Please model this.
Amino acid sequence: MSKALDLLDIKILEMLGKYGPRNISYIARRLGIPIETTRKRVKRLISQFFITFHANVYHTNLGLKKAFVFANALPGYEEVVFKSLKANDFWLYVGRYFGRWEGCYGIYGIPDEHTKEFEEFVHKLEEAEVVRNLQFFWSTCLYSVNLKDNWFDPKSKSWIFDWDKWIEEIPTEETKLPHNLMDPDDFPIRADYIDILILTELEVNSAVSFRDIAKTINASPEVVSYHYKNHILKRSLLEQSRIFFLRFDRAISDFLVFFFRFDDRDKMARFALSLLDKPFVHALGKIIGENALIVHMYLPRIEFRRLICSLSELIRRGLLESYEYVIEDFNVRAAQTISYEFFEGDSWVYDHAKYVENLKNLIGSAGVGKSRV
Model:
């Protein structure tokens, strides 16, 4: 790539991830550089690297339980499976993947009181004759890994993938996980309708002004400010800000989703903590009730074999039990915010019968044998 980050760029991006794009003056003070320099740097980074800023909603405190569904598709019916995963209004992300199988996966935020109904929805999908195999997990919220200067060489202005060092550091990590990588005790609804609307706007662009949010949700800037400070922040409805951009050349890099399993909780925790400052990690979550992680990665293809060799070495040392992965097709994906339109009063409206009917109609239109949905 002709574009290159320097060390100051990395430091600014790290601070943006930690303090958010609203706090440019504070970031400038922390870095000891003029605020105008910081603003110009941020503007250049956004322009050159197509950086976007997003708020990570803490779904747990909205009464929403995170779910992952991975469905291998019958050849020729990948698009039907893709649409089927969106038959439930509470989907957050749907993407295609390839590798051993062609398939699709979905991420959902399901109202806690409707988890049994969602499991029935997944079972209906599993029975469908367009799906060959399906894996389903309840997960914690995802921890976004924003850029840090670890593994960055300021002299060459390039990334150095020190896999051997990573292997050695894993057993030295602590075992206390961030709260959003721990199994939740419950899923309380701590938001009201205005909070939900504000969170929706911040998910799209966490740098948006209160004035612009106010115009969108038909409220005053004062009301938006009050709810942000006194509800959203004080009730822990947000996690860290997420900065999205392609850190490596897309032409020679891949998005991957890994499943890592461990034979005890401490090994899982050490492995998870070792990933929180690595440039190839975008996000990770813990599978609820298991010593297992789901990790989203973005990695130069030339480094993939070295990653796999490193994982093999971790297994030999007893630090990792097993792993699986799929390669994500980043050209076929869809994302949406929390389903604000289904929040009424102080609860979520979940229409199970509608979602099963949507699924039935989609599978039926595929014309594969006799659908059992």
The radius of gyration is 21 Å. The domain at 1-50 is CATH 1.10.10.10 (Arc Repressor Mutant, subunit A).
